[in-house]
Write a structure and sequence with these properties.
α7 links the parallel β6 and β7. The chain starts with 11 loop residues before the first helix and ends with a helix. The chain has 12 helices and 9 strands. It is 44% helix and 14% strand. The chain is of the alpha/beta class and 310 residues long. The protein is globular. A 5-stranded parallel beta sheet has the order 7-6-5-8-9.
Length: 310
Amino acid sequence: MKDFLSIDQCMKEQLEELLDLSTKLKKKYKAGKRDLCLEGKTLAMLFEKPSLRTRMSFQVAMTDLGGASIYVKPEDIGGIGKREPVKDIARVLSRYVHGIMARTFEHQTVVELAKFAEIPVINALTDWSHPCQVMADVLTIQEHLGKLDGVTIAYIGDGNNVARSLAFVAAKLDMKLVVASPGGYELDSESIDKANSYKADTVEQTNNPADAVKDAQVIYTDTWVSMGQEEEKQKRIKDFEGFGIDEELLKNAPAGVKIMHCLPAYRGYEISDGVVESENSIIFDQAENRLHFQRALLKKLLTTEAQRGK
């Protein structure tokens, strides 16, 4: 594994190795011990979209492992691929740093960075994929349920990058995903077919949230209006009416079902304040695990990069 761009490009064994390493490193750091395996290493963090969790978790993870990070805003470089080609940015950064983390709009941007970079490239989010998020999610599910095999996740909301990555990780790690979206906002059939080609009957699509949650051990949602969709806000709020995770919807779900949200949460829209604050919510454990998974990912990719002599 040179890069980490999308779950569908990873083998089951690679994902399980990263989860195992995440658990081990989390225990080590919780015990007050440190692993300075990235001493002398630097990570360039390219941001087209701002984020609290992405910046903080990657920056803290690099510091924890003894390395350093550089936060690069779009205006710092004139925009990724605007003032100069993505392939030139990739090749220049390969001479300066040991890894690139990119949070971009277009998925092709991280693909091109990885193609031309001689160092590892990590997808911290694109409009098509959010692999770091869903690996933190499955780490959280594993911690709370004690397993992944056979777990059913009901995803309620937009068939977006998170839903797509959940579909791929469910297929790779023997879970089941039911996606409930309003008409016109479903997860694309190509992604569903691809996930089900890895393991048959992994992903189902419905337009009925109550049906989706009836057998779920986990209910998951995301914002209805992602960055770049602000002009659609009022239309989306109207179209997603009835798709919020609230106390009424939970009456259709098993008792004790776990609630997840990748944040930021817009309370009163895709999720109610009461559900966020409920005993069933594992949302902030989920947010914390971004740090623990990404610490493991950085160790895996950047120490392997060192072994290659780059």
